[in-house]
Automatic annotation (TrEMBL):
Protein name: Amino acid transporter
Keywords: Cell membrane, Membrane, Transmembrane, Transmembrane helix, Transport
Superkingdom of source: Bacteria
Ranges that cross the membrane: 12-30, 36-57, 85-102, 129-147, 159-181, 201-219, 240-262, 292-311, 345-364, 370-393, 414-436, 448-473
Keyword hit for Protein transport: no
Compartment annotation: Cell membrane
UniProt GO cellular component terms: plasma membrane
The keyword Magnesium is assigned to this record: no
Listed Gene3D superfamilies: Amino acid/polyamine transporter I (1.20.1740.10)
Main location: membrane
Membrane topology recorded in Swiss-Prot or TrEMBL: Multi-pass membrane protein
A GO term for molecular function: transmembrane transporter activity
Species per Swiss-Prot/TrEMBL record: Companilactobacillus bobalius DSM 19674
Length: 479
């Protein structure tokens, strides 16, 4: 009896807090403020209502309907359709991590620069070739560490995650309170004018939606906890709605705090790379503690990025090779070393990420543009995996009689399908619009066209490789 009781030990507040630490981070606020300024506050409210809340509640129903699947998106797709589609879902989940892995070494180097130099000159002064060369070395070192099966990185990641959550909350509290406690000058003029917060819905605006979608994605990681929640039909959606409110409040107050520190009308070009450190430095000076906050955030970001780098080399690959139908994967990729590591899978990861680290440095001028481009590429590619969540939900709405769940997001199958289609369309639209480079074309036309070409070619190449592997497997997987 006690085991059954413990199995349903999660309450709505546990779901909300777990989801918040999984989905949210301070950099989400910085990156989107860099794109839109204070108008992002309206965008946050819209994206929460029109996208994030339906997304999380769809995930809740999928997790509840497929308790035995452990929450894997490819498992949902396999149950609802077939093995081939499930392979493509598993492939997408793995391959979108390639740009993610390519940027983590950059983030580590920026963090260490602030920790030891106390400024952001590294991203401004360094040659892209030199930085990407160092990024490649850092990445390959982590491939080697991950191949040794270093389990301690999981615990480091958990500690860093809690620390990052704490730093995000600290930033909001200090940022909002600083002008009133320390009487510092508010950077953005007219912060009491409603027009400051209204976006201009033009082409430039729509190219930035992918970063918002990227920021609020990943809720499917919470799906395994649906059936561990007490009174799931009531408490899980309540927890998810509280999660959305927490994220919205953090996004709005965080953006407001940055607006007090950085002039929304004159956003620095290096805000995405250095913004969080500059903000913490400003707050440290305002509260007379020097670089204390900068050091704390630099250490936190270094540990979080290092753990994410090592874990993301192994975990998505393990999911691909372990979950997908073996007839679609070449036998050579399944080969394991004595530690149970798919060594050829690691080599494939290393080759793809190495290409993505080095090639852009040959055509993008300036390390800051390179950093911003790679972050933007992540916002184009990473949401591609969310498409499978919405496809799974649409397929589930057509099979409600067959797959019952404790929690139902929408009982009417046609309304449910429509909501799933809307989320699918918005995600695809954001990814496509995000391909337009964010830099000024007139300032550097060759770099702008080079970025556009990479933004189109990279996702297409990654998808194409996923189509090629089953063909190779068909020729080579002969018993």
């Amino acid at each position: 009896m006690s085991d059954a009781k413990n199995a349903k030990a999660f309450r709505w507040w546990n779901i909300a807090l777990l989801g918040f630490t999984t989905v949210w981070g301070l950099n989400n606020v910085i990156n989107n403020f860099a794109n839109q300024g204070l108008a992002v506050i309206t965008s946050w409210i819209l994206i929460m209502i029109l996208y994030f809340v339906p997304y999380t509640l769809m995930v809740g129903q999928l997790g509840s309907a497929f308790q035995e699947a452990g929450g894997g998106v490819s498992s949902w797709i396999r149950t609802l359709s077939n093995n081939k589609l499930a392979y493509f879902a598993a492939w997408t989940y793995w391959v979108v991590h390639v740009p993610y892995l390519a940027q983590k070494p950059q983030i580590i180097m920026v963090s260490l620069s602030w920790l030891f130099k106390g400024n952001g000159s590294f991203i401004k002064d360094s040659s892209p070739i030199v930085v990407q060369g160092l990024s490649l070395i850092i990445f390959l070192v982590f491939v080697w560490i991950a191949s040794k099966g270093a389990s301690t990185l999981n615990s480091i990641g958990s500690i860093a995650g809690i620390a990052m959550f704490t730093m995000s909350m600290l930033f909001i509290i200090l940022g909002v309170s600083a002008p009133f406690i320390t009487h510092v000058q508010i950077a953005t003029p007219n912060m009491t004018d409603i027009h400051t917060y209204i976006p201009k819905f033009d082409l430039q605006y729509f190219t930035t939606i992918s970063m918002l979608v990227f920021a609020v994605g990943g809720a499917e990681k919470i799906s395994p906890y649906v059936n561990k929640t007490k009174n799931a039909s009531r408490e899980f959606p309540l927890g998810m709605i509280i999660l959305a409110v927490m994220v919205a409040v953090s996004a709005v107050l965080g953006s407001f705090a940055i607006g007090m520190i950085v002039n929304s009308n004159h956003i620095p070009a290096d805000l995405m790379a250095n913004g969080a450190y500059q903000a913490f430095q400003f707050l440290g000076n305002s509260f007379h503690v020097g670089n204390l906050f900068v050091w704390a955030f630099a250490i936190t970001n270094t540990l979080a990025s290092a753990a994410a780098l090592a874990i993301s080399i192994d975990a998505p690959l393990r999911m691909l090779l372990g979950d997908a139908d073996k007839k679609y994967i070449p036998k050579a990729l399944l080969k394991k070393n004595k530690r149970g590591i798919a060594i050829n899978g690691y080599k494939m990861t290393a080759i793809l990420v190495s290409i993505l680290i080095i090639v852009p440095a040959l055509g993008i001028n300036g390390m800051n543009d390179l950093y911003n481009w790679l972050l933007n590429l992540n916002s184009i590619v990473m949401p591609m995996r969310y498409l499978w969540v919405f496809l799974a939900y649409m397929m589930l709405t057509k099979q409600l009689d067959k797959y019952k769940s404790d929690y139902m997001f929408v009982k009417n199958r046609y309304v449910g399908f429509g909501v799933g289609l809307w989320a699918f369309f918005l995600t695809a639209f954001a990814c496509i619009m995000g391909m337009v480079p964010k830099m000024n074309m007139a300032q550097d036309p060759s770099s702008w066209w080079f970025q556009l070409a990479l933004n189109i070619i990279t996702p297409l190449a990654l998808i194409l490789l996923g189509l090629i592997l089953p063909a190779i497997a068909k020729r080579t997987n002969v018993d």
